[in-house]
Amino acid sequence: MNPVIEQFLANITSLHQLQAKNLPEDVLEEMVKMEAQELYKICTQFVVLQNNVPTADKMINIEESELIVMVDDYAKELLKRLRG
Fold this sequence. Notes:
Largest sheet: none
Helix content: 55-70%
Strand content: under 5%
Low-confidence stretches: none
Mean pLDDT: 94
Oligomer: single chain
Radius of gyration: 13 Å
Distance between the termini: 26 Å
C-alpha cells in the first residue's frame, strides 16, 4: 500500500475522515498519481472501512452489487473534489 495512505489510515480517529470530502491534500495528491485499478481498490477499501459492519460469521456484509454502487458514488465524489 502507498505509504502516505497507509499513514493516513493508521492515524484516523473517526470514520467520517474516510469520506472523499474529508481526505487530506497529501492523500488526494497520492490518489491522483495512481493508475485506475489501484485507485479503484483504494476507493473500495475506504468504502468498506466506512460502511461495513462485520458479524461473527461474515467479514464483509455489503453485497457486491451494493458495494459497486457505493464505490462508484465514492469515486464520483472524489472526482468532484479533485475538480474543485
